[in-house]
Every structure is written in structure tokens, then in C-alpha cells.
Write a structure and sequence with these properties.
- The protein has one domain: TIM Barrel.
- The protein has a five-stranded parallel β-sheet, covered by helices on one side. The protein has a two-stranded antiparallel ribbon with strand order 5-6.
- By secondary structure, the chain is of the alpha/beta class.
């Protein structure tokens, strides 16, 4: 069954009311341009045909400059449920909301018909949005950055007509005095939106900062979590610096499962 597509209407109601119209998608997988063609990659359509309960929806990572690859187009053609995960938008940067990008994003969203739009709420590029500048950094954990992100979420929600759910990105260096979850609690309250909690990314942050895995979750507005991400990470060390690599292997570390549970 194709997931119901939630459209935001003029005169926004509170998220607690709007979320009732957001579909429950079940257990899904994610992809981005060319991922399914990589060696030993999981093929979403084969998984859907063989074990449909494990591929109830596809989260499609999108850069508007690339569009959809053949795997994503075939999934959409079949009418299977999707979400749109942006890979090229700095929510806190007003200049990122330029007319060409918004037009292309709206066109892709109309093609994908996602249940919602989401994306790592950090810095997808440094400087102008150019192919050589693409990366992913966490935001500065401060009140001003939270205010800017929330404004960007509202702007994108109004422009595309879909719920926009920020996700906590991965990182190895964090600037700012706030705990990561305090930052995103402020963002989602200001934007009156839901949240995608990436359990692996949070486990990476907690390990790096020396916190137990679930630090801060008791104070977070858990009722705003709409989607949970789980992926494998690999512990590594470089010149005495211990970190976890967000390499999306099948090996999920215990702290990630602890956060998920």
C-alpha cells in the first residue's frame, strides 16, 4: 500500500495534531545515488520482494544536482512508500534556500511523494553549494544556531508542503556548550516539528564526549521522535584519538541498540 502523503496546509496546527496524519511506515532502509550499485550493497527492490517486512519504505537520500538513480526511480514507479532525505541543505543558511534549489527540490518531492522530508541537520557544505564543498559537519551547539535551524525548518516546510524532520548528524568534533540533545530539543520546540533520532550518531557523540549512551534522553521530548535510524559503526584510532566511524556496516554496536531500546 502506498503511504499516505501528509500535506501541510496554510494556517498550521500544532505538531501534536498534525502528526496524527503522518503514516506509520514500519521498518525501512535507506539509500542514496548509486549506493545500490556498490559492491556487496543491499538491493532495496530485491529485499522488498524477498522480505517485505524489512523494506516497508525506502528513505531516499537526495542531492538535487544528481536527482534519483535507477533504483530509486524503480521504487517510486512501483508506488512503494518513501521518505525524502536531503543531502545538500544547510538549514541555518538563508542563502541555501535559493529559487533554483527550491524548485528542483519541490519537483523531486512531487516525483517521490514522500511521507515526510528529513535530513541531517548540520552543515552539508562549507561555503557555496558546490560539488567540491560537500561534506557533513555537526552544527555549532548554541542557542543562535538552534534558532537559525528552526527558522530553516519552518521555511522548508512552508516551501515544500511536507513535514520537515531534522536528524542529529555524525561528527568527531563538536563546538558549542550545549549537549547535543539539548540543542535538538530546542530546535524541534522552536520549529514545532518532529525529530529523526539517529541512534548510531548519538552513540558516537556520547562516546566521544565521555557520556553514558542514554545521557540526555530523559529530558528530551520523546513524543516528537517520528523515526529512528540504526546503522553499524566501527571503532577506530588515529594517533591516539579514538573515534567511531559512521561506515554503515551491518555490525551495530551495543550502545546504539541501548539507545534504540
Amino acid at each position: 500500500m502506498v503511504a499516505h502523503t501528509f500535506r501541510v496546509e496554510t494556517g498550521m496546527t500544532a505538531f501534536a495534531d498534525r502528526v496524527r496524519d503522518v503514516p506509520t511506515l514500519g521498518l525501512g532502509i535507506s539509500t542514496e545515488y548509486g549506493a545500490a550499485a556498490a559492491p556487496s550493497a543491499l538491493d532495496p527492490l530485491t529485499l522488498r520482494a524477498t522480505y517485505p517486512a524489512f523494506a516497508a519504505f525506502l528513505e531516499i537520500g537526495v542531492e538535487v544536482s544528481k536527482g534519483l538513480d535507477d533504483t530509486a526511480r524503480r521504487w517510486v514507479h512501483e508506488g512503494f512508500p518513501t521518505t525524502y532525505h536531503f543531502l545538500d541543505l544547510n538549514l541555518e543558511d538563508e542563502e541555501d534556500f535559493d529559487a533554483p534549489w527550491l524548485t528542483a527540490a519541490a519537483r523531486l518531492a512531487a516525483q517521490v511523494q514522500p511521507a515526510w522530508v528529513c535530513g541531517d541537520a548540520g552543515l552539508w557544505h562549507f561555503g557555496r553549494r558546490e560539488r567540491g564543498h560537500m561534506l557533513l559537519l555537526p552544527p555549532v551547539l548554541s542557542a543562535e544556531a538552534a534558532r537559525q535551524q528552526a527558522a530553516g525548518i519552518i521555511r522548508l516546510r512552508d516551501a515544500l508542503g511536507y513535514e520537515v524532520l531534522p536528524e542529529n548528524p555524525p561528527g568527531q568534533i563538536y563546538l558549542g556548550s550545549w549537549h547535543l540533545l539539548d540543542f535538538y530539543a530546542d530546535v524541534v520546540e522552536r520549529a514545532d516539528t518532529g525529530f529523526v533520532l539517529d541512534c548510531a550518531h548519538l552513540a558516537m557523540y556520547q562516546q566521544l564526549m565521555g557520556y553514558p549512551p542514554c545521557t540526555g534522553l530523559a529530558e528530551f521530548p520523546l513524543e516528537r521522535i517520528v523515526e529512528l535510524h540504526v546503522a553499524g559503526t566501527t571503532p577506530r584510532e588515529h594517533e591516539g584519538f579514538a573515534y567511531w566511524d559512521d561506515d554503515h556496516t551491518p555490525h551495530v554496536l551495543p550502545p546504539t541498540w541501548q539507545i534504540f531500546q
